[in-house]
Amino acid sequence: MTINLATAWEAIADRRPDALALHCGGVSRSWAEFDERSARLSGALAAAGLGPGDNVACAMYNGNEYMETEFAAFKLRAAPCNVNYRYVEAELQYLVDNSDAKAVFFDAALAERFDHVRHELPGVAIWVQVGDGEVPDWAVAYETAVATSEPAPRIERSGDDLWVLYTGGTTGHPKGVMWPHRNLAAISGRTFEAFGVGVPASVDELPAIIDAIGDRAPRQLAASPLMHGTAGIGAIMHLLTGGAVVSLTSRSLDCDELWRTVEALRCTTVSIVGDVFCAPMVDELDRRAADGDPVDLTSVRTVTSSGVMWSQPIKDRLLAHARAVGSELNCFDSLGSSEGVGFAGKQSAAGGDTETATFTLGPNAA
User: Average pLDDT for residues 66-71, to the nearest whole number?
Assistant: First the structure.
């Protein structure tokens, strides 16, 4: 497999320029816009001296900017690295230094934290602030970078180019797991198989597959953070099939916004992290049903989770709401890690088993 994500996404933008690629807070980006804006960001990074093999730290909340930044890095053959926006100064300094990041994209809410440690990070060539608020003199505004930069040209790339996923530090300090693009494409099989097609072995095979998927292209609601592997890897998979990534504006879980976004955007997948997400989501379904305004779940094919326990009683409550409105929703509970996914999984649909934490080994696990 030789898939490079930037080259694949460019091919999709050429094939489906008007299709939805990103949406957040009422702002939609078509695939053509996604490609154009990312190319301009990539041009800004190139002007700052970044190129193949360099790393780009992404210290951002969910939003269209997150995926545009990843695409921009991929276009240069640089690797985006996730940064937990809950980290305090010392943790931010450690991760940016450990990743050898030459660019840092950060939310405006983190400006003060980074200001306290940026002098200890001389390797950073460009700081880009995302969101509203006064931009410090040591950074450039995200939209300014998009508006004033020349788009980076398309180049030859490799399936060995990297996407770096930092662990949460459960085994000591966070560690950067280096994912080659070809491996990310290889684990996308489940997403492609849902449409009766196989994973492309090369970008040349992608246009015909995108045509076969057509208007059935999936829409992922990234309810959990894109800087976490569950939604982050899911976003890459959904975009690789010509789909879209939808995110929420709330900085904490707002289940009313979540379900109304699912309804408005007709999302097909919801990415969550266990009971900590699903329990309040089901409570909101209970509330809406009691008010005589049940949530329209008919677009949702899968709610997928990993990282935290997802108990069967909570799944059953979710599935009961789905049955009540005629939805064929199923729950996919994935057991894996930052270093590898698909170790084991469990799929639950209406009338399925009732045991919590029973999994079936994946085809490549022993």
Answer: 98
